[in-house]
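subagent[fold] <- orchestrator: predict structure for attached chain, return tokens only, no commentary.
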Amino acid sequence: MNQDDFNQLRYKLPATPGINGREDYFNSAVLALLMFVEEEYFFIFQKRNKKIRQGGEICFPGGKQDELLDKDAKDTAIRETVEEMGIGAEDIEVIGALDIVVAPMGAIVEPFLAITHKQDIKEFLFNEDEVEAVFMLPVAYFKNNPPEMYKTQIKVHPSYTDEEGNEVILFPSKDLGLGEYYTNPWGRSESTVLVYRTEEGIIWGLTARIIQDVVKRLEETR
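subagent[fold] -> orchestrator:
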């Protein structure tokens, strides 16, 4: 690298860093949707249809980013909310972005805080193929009831056993001469799992982490 290359590199550094390796992750966006009812704000949740992936779980509306349909993550969050919850984009006001979540199972989630101008969740014509039910819980509940905290252990697996019992090598650590340690699963990093117990069921994982982000921001405004 010569001086000209260095000068070019200097001006190519981003003002806001991105996420190295983003293309290896499942990239998605969700909308933490609020409704103002009787002088109180409520989170609006959906319970996923039992016939789809992660069926029966409670979450915010959202899904995978589509480069053909969405110009950015906010577009994704709005589009998915419209499709799943059965409300119009004109009924949604995005307040701003929340912290990006990089999940240990290989997903990047970009959450946005929004409010709907609808006055009753009975007006939501939700997509029954994806959503079993829509309900709301007061934000105050989560402020007054901190989440339970658990741990999971994350390990890197250089190979796996397929359905026929054959070992499939993903990372040829032995051929690369990296030592015996890397021929077996390695790493013992722990990931925190948040759990809220509610009258509607358990809310956990990424959804719980997004709720906690909102609650922490509320506490910081005091």
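orchestrator: received. Logging for downstream: Residues 21-220 form a domain with the Nucleoside Triphosphate Pyrophosphohydrolase fold (CATH 3.90.79.10). The radius of gyration is 21 Å.
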